[in-house]
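Run log // design_07
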């Protein structure tokens, strides 16, 4: 348990939904959530060489919606946000001077972004038509999802899925063994 500055107990420092008063000026106080709505879980923050082009690609390939963009004095995107379905994703142009490096500079990325979508088949066709590289073709999986994996032109890897079936842990282990996979 943690003590708040007001003496109340918090059950966790994470997912704290308490509201905090912030004063904008002498006459007005705003009440804000410590964790903004829609950002309760992990939010990927992508470093991209060519962030403006990437935003346009994500709109075309994945149906992304741009929710904000801030350019720096040098014209590079200092911060932007998009949504793919309900998933919030932050991104910015690569800034080597602060060690914010893109997959292209690093020679790839070990991170895969996983997002559930309503129709993986439609998204896959749209992504491929927009120029995404298919890394794993769309297929039904033993764990109940239909999935596909793609690399964007900027070096980020995306794993999209549509959940098709609830599978118990025991059944999942049986199916994995039958498929020759790990349990």
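design_07 sequence
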């Amino acid at each position: 348990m943690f003590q708040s500055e007001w003496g109340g107990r918090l059950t966790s420092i994470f997912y704290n939904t308490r509201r905090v008063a912030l004063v904008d000026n002498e006459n007005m106080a705003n009440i804000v959530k410590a964790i903004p709505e829609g950002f309760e879980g992990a939010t990927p923050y992508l470093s991209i060489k060519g962030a403006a082009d990437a935003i346009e690609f994500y709109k075309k390939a994945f149906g992304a919606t741009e929710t904000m963009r801030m350019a720096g004095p040098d014209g590079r995107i200092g911060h932007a946000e998009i949504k793919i379905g309900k998933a919030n994703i932050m991104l910015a142009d690569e800034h080597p001077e602060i060690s914010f490096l893109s997959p292209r500079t690093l020679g790839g990325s070990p991170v895969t972004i996983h997002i559930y979508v309503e129709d993986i088949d439609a998204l896959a066709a749209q992504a491929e038509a927009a120029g995404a590289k298919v890394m794993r073709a769309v297929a039904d999986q033993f764990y109940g999802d239909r999935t596909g994996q793609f690399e964007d032109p900027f070096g980020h890897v995306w794993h999209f899925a549509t959940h098709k079936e609830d599978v118990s842990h025991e059944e999942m282990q049986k199916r994995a063994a039958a498929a020759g996979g790990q349990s």
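The longest strand covers residues 77-84.
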